[in-house]
């Protein structure tokens, strides 16, 4: 059997803490369930001491997830460790992940502590965590800019204190693959008790090398990789889970290691993160970008028609992109729709299928060809529905090159229909101004983006908006063949989410 690399997913911690990727508690729970289904070994659910909201999300994830270990992050002090344990203790497989910086740069400028002092703090932290669980991970922050012998001394002592995983973060994304591989090899040879721990790596992507560095580390003995879906994370992000999993699978001949990842669930997991955060991946992103499996050039297409092997190193199906690209249309029935959903790898209940089918029918009335991407969008919308305090009942917009953009909007708020009219610098601005007035919301619009879901002229426009109010941040999503309607739906969806968060006191961090 191939040697196994453990996948430690930090989408909900390092990913979520990066700008634009905030998630609320129900969203984090949904992601955690998907990561479990994906086959992630360890889910880093959050940083419990950071806020009540983070604590609560980690606690709920710990109570829900059974097949993956649940890690809570803690700085190397008693308060953080105790709090992390409180949050994760209900998990079937809890893990405390404690960390402290080891580079002289951080010690001198940030912590103003000596190497010996930091060593003692780290050892005490691991001992504290060990009182709660045998599953303790220690991270040496900024390891790649740390003195190698000090790093080895640190790892030797924390392993003696009980750490079963030692993590080597390239916190600032400074390492290059050959050098990073050598560092791992140095640790393997110079930490005498290293056989009692798993070596982990955690690479940031500032120089675009996070995945390459992680792979170099695996070559040299690392057996845990910390990564995120779509590579989201601080600054330029973390190593991307999907790339690592597919490199190890596709080039098993080179690495002779594998992961427990169900690669067929990669596509949906990536879409889920985009739907929740509103942050799309670039079209040419490896594995999950819209063009990752699209062959445009005539020579390539010719080769592919003759034999897939000519230009295809992995199949789209292996990452969960549905095989059938046959479009559905207004004559497609419930049966075909249900089959397509199953083929796309989604498991929906009857109620969700019925709602999705209704939306599909409405769409196929106005759009000739309904593609998998359209269906995906409908499903995401149905899955993420929150109770609707606000409903868009009517929207009429007039605009043009000689007209003052004017919007008339009717909203159903708590069952009562209200109406108003207003102008703006453009049709979306006019619509948003009226909705804002009708909903009497104090929320601030932080972001607005429009994408086309498919390539055709009657394509649906997909709109994401980000709203903020009293520290709560939400992403609203709307799609329609009319982008002004899509924009209005996205705004109303965000208002409903804000309402839901306020009612459920779900806190943002
Ligand atoms: O980048 C980093 O060093 C981290 C640690 C907390 C592991 O995220
Ligand atoms: Zn990090």
From TrEMBL:
The answer to whether the entry has keyword Lipoprotein is no
Q: In which pathway does it act?
A: Amino-acid biosynthesis; L-leucine biosynthesis; L-leucine from 3-methyl-2-oxobutanoate: step 1/4
Annotated region (Regulatory domain), positions in chain: 391-509
DNA damage keyword on record: no
Quaternary structure (record): Homodimer.
Question: What's this protein's function?
Answer: Catalyzes the condensation of the acetyl group of acetyl-CoA with 3-methyl-2-oxobutanoate (2-ketoisovalerate) to form 3-carboxy-3-hydroxy-4-methylpentanoate (2-isopropylmalate).
Spell out the protein name for this chain.
2-isopropylmalate synthase
| Higher taxonomy | Bacteria, Pseudomonadati, Thermodesulfobacteriota, Syntrophorhabdia, Syntrophorhabdales
């Amino acid at each position: 059997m191939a040697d196994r690399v453990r996948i430690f997913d930090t989408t909900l911690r390092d990913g979520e803490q990066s700008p634009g990727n905030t998630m609320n508690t129900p969203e984090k729970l949904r992601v955690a369930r998907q990561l479990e289904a994906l086959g992630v070994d360890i889910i880093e659910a959050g940083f419990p001491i950071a806020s009540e909201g983070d604590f609560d999300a980690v606690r709920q994830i710990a109570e829900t997830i059974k097949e993956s270990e649940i890690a809570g992050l803690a700085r190397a002090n008693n308060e953080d460790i105790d709090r992390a344990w409180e949050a994760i203790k209900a998990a079937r497989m809890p893990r405390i992940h404690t960390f402290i910086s080891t580079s002289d740069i951080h010690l001198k400028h940030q912590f103003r502590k000596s190497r010996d002092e930091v060593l003692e703090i780290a050892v005490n932290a691991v001992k504290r965590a060990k009182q709660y669980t045998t599953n303790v991970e220690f991270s040496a922050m900024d390891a790649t800019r740390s003195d190698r012998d000090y790093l080895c001394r640190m790892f030797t002592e924390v392993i003696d204190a009980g750490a079963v995983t030692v993590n080597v973060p390239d916190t600032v994304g400074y390492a290059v693959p050959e050098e990073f591989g050598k560092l791992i090899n140095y640790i393997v040879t110079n930490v005498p008790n290293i056989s009692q721990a798993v070596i982990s790596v955690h690479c940031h992507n500032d120089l675009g090398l996070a995945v390459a560095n992680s792979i170099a580390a695996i070559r040299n003995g690392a057996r845990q990789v910390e990564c995120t879906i779509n590579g989201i994370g601080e600054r330029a992000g973390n190593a991307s889970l999907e790339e690592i999993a597919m490199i190890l699978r596709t080039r098993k001949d080179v690495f002779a290691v594998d992961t427990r990842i169900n690669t067929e669930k990669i596509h949906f997991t990536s879409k889920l993160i985009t739907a929740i955060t509103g942050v799309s991946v670039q079209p040419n992103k490896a594995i999950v970008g819209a063009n990752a499996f699209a062959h445009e050039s005539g020579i390539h297409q010719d080769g592919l028609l003759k034999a897939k092997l000519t230009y295809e190193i992995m199949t789209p199906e292996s990452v969960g992109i549905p095989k059938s690209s046959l479009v559905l249309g207004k004559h497609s029935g419930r049966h075909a729709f249900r089959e397509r959903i199953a083929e796309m790898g989604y498991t929906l209940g009857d109620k969700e299928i019925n709602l999705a089918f209704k939306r599909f029918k409405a769409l196929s009335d106005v759009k000739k060809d309904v593609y998998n991407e359209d269906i995906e969008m409908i499903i995401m919308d149905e899955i993420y529905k929150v109770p609707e305090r606000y409903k868009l009942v009517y929207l009429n917009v007039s605009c043009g090159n000689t007209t003052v953009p004017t919007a008339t909007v009717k909203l159903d708020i708590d069952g009562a229909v209200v109406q108003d009219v207003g102008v703006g610098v453009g049709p979306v601005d006019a619509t948003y101004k009226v909705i804002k007035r009708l909903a009497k919301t104090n929320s601030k619009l932080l972001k607005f983006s429009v994408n086309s879901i498919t390539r055709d002229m009657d394509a649906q426009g997909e709109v994401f908006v980000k709203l903020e109010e009293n520290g709560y941040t939400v992403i609203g999503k709307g799609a329609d063949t009319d982008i002004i309607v899509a924009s209005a739906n996205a705004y109303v969806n965000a208002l409903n989410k804000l309402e839901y968060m306020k009612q459920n006191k779900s806190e943002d961090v």
